[in-house]
Amino acid sequence: MTQRYDLVILGGGVGGLVTASVAGQLGLDVALVERTGRLGGDCLHYGCVPSKTLIRSAEVAHLARDAGRYGVAATAAATDLGAVMDRVREVVARIQEHDDPERFRGYGVDVVFGEGRFVDARTVAVGDRRLQGRRFLIATGSRPAVPPVPGLEEAGYWTNETVFDQRELPRRLAVLGGGPIGLELAQAFARLGSEVTVIEMAERILPREDPEITGELQRLLADEGITIRVGTTVEGVDAGSEGARLSCRDGAEAFAVDADRILVAAGRRPNVESLEPDNAGVRVEAGGIPVDARMHTSARHIFACGDVTGLYPFTHVAEYQAGVVIANVVFKLPKKADYRVVPWVTYTAPELAHVGLTESTAREHGYTVQVARFRFADVDRALAEGTTGGLLKLVVHKQRIIGATVLGPHAGELIHELVLAMQAEVKIKHLSAAVHAYPTLAQIHRRAVNTLYADKLYAPSTRRLVRWLHRLLP
Predict the structure, then answer these.
(1) Cβ-contact 159, 144 below 8 angstroms
(2) What are phi and psi of 374, to 5 degrees?
(3) Which of 168, 244, 397, 413 would you call most buried, defined as having the most Cβ atoms within 10 angstroms of its Cβ?
(4) Rounded-to-integer distance, Cα 60 and Cα 64, Å
């Protein structure tokens, strides 16, 4: 059976759903193909939603054990991981209601469940159906990359796709990967009661972030009892009746890590193979499907967005890219993606949020920069809440912020004032002049900026000017 559409979308994650919703409601004939039996994608089922729900439960357990620091007498029983995961599933199910296939069918979208593959440049096969389209969107996302470590398959491992199905808390957990997923889940399990070791091949955790900030985060995580080994490779895994032994190497040092369970969080791979993209003339590279600024693939009538492009593996970027696709496909407007001001957040405690250039990257690009820092330990609201770890770091060029990193409580919320300042090219004097409510964590923005004015404000020349004005004027 062959059917014809204006737009065929492959992938029912956020990129595909946003595009399908708008295109369908505006009257286009749209088919949405999803290989699993449910919509919502990796973010809803294996990523953002379940991980943040788990992190919140872990935070509650941590606060209960740490209650004495707040003057409260409390005790915390051993964690029932099954009960925690039940809550995770409840939250996912609640949000899943927004991604009900019938909702999209009500928009006029033909929702098709099954594995889609290109037969040719204008046809996608799903089972015995043939979907022909004028335009296509590939939004199939990504999956965990599993390193080729000898013995790992035999020993067994978790990924973000299986970790939320677990019911028993491991006594010892080894995490392969010191990126956002690895660190978030490592801290969550440590706070729930596991003994956690993180093993990262790079010389530091979160290699894309400012090294000054990641160094501090690593110290804070270590203070919670998490062992972090950077610059370390896993050379093999031996499975035994008492768990697994990971043979590791850090330069000349060889050592072993014993674990009851292994969590692999060593990067992502684009979901492209089953699409048979060669049949449609779509070029694929190791990191994903290359796209231009208008989200075209090498086949001009086929677009791609989200993780499958390998650009920015964030749900909010997939949603933004979907907007670019909608402009080009639905409204025929030549809109281009602009990634100059893209924030992202690692949801450890404290959170690490970033936007723009780091200090080192800015200097490498030839910018003459000023750097402002202010610590949460000097922010009254942070002191009141007992969350004083971390700092704000601003990178400023010609009185405008070109990069910012926040390591601290609610950093994912705080970063957006700086995102707006960068997007609107606001000068830092306006941040300094803006009235910030007291006591709030957001005061850190104003106070960081003011450190750049302190030397000039209290300089000898300014003191002389003030004395002269007071002698001259009544």
Answers:
(1) yes
(2) -150, 135
(3) 244
(4) 6
Angle made by CA atoms 392, 461, 375, in degrees to the nearest 5: 10
pLDDT digits 0-9 by tens, 373-425:
999 999 999 999 999 999 999 999 999 999 999 999 999 999 999 999 999 99
Rounded to whole angstroms, what are the CA distances from 5 to 23, 32, 106, 136, 474? 11, 10, 17, 9, 80
Given the candidates 3.40.640.10, 3.30.70.360, 3.30.390.30, 3.40.50.10540, the CATH classification of the domain at 344-457 is 3.30.390.30
Give me the torsion for CA of 131, 132, 135, 137, rounded to 10°: 20
* Residue 285 C-beta-side C-alpha neighbours within 13 Å: 9
- Asked whether the beta carbons of 420 and 401 are under 8 A apart, the reply is no
| Angle between helices 315-329 and 14-25 in degrees, nearest 10 | 30
Residues in the chain: 474
Q: What is the largest distance, in Å, between two alpha-carbon atoms of the chain?
A: 93
CATH code 3.30.200.20 for 152-267: no
In this prediction the pTM is 0.95
What CA–CA distances, in Å, run from 298 to 73, 120, 273, 405?
A: 63, 14, 16, 35
213-231 pLDDT per residue, tens: 999 999 999 999 999 999 9
- In this structure, are strands 123-126 and 129-138 parallel, antiparallel, or unpaired? antiparallel
Strand ranges, E, within 299-399? 302-304, 344-346, 351-356, 370-375, 391-397
Q: How does DSSP classify residue 83?
A: H
Please provide the DSSP assignment of 147-201 as one string.
---TTHHHH--B-TTTGGG--S--SEEEEE--SHHHHHHHHHHHHHT-EEEEE-S
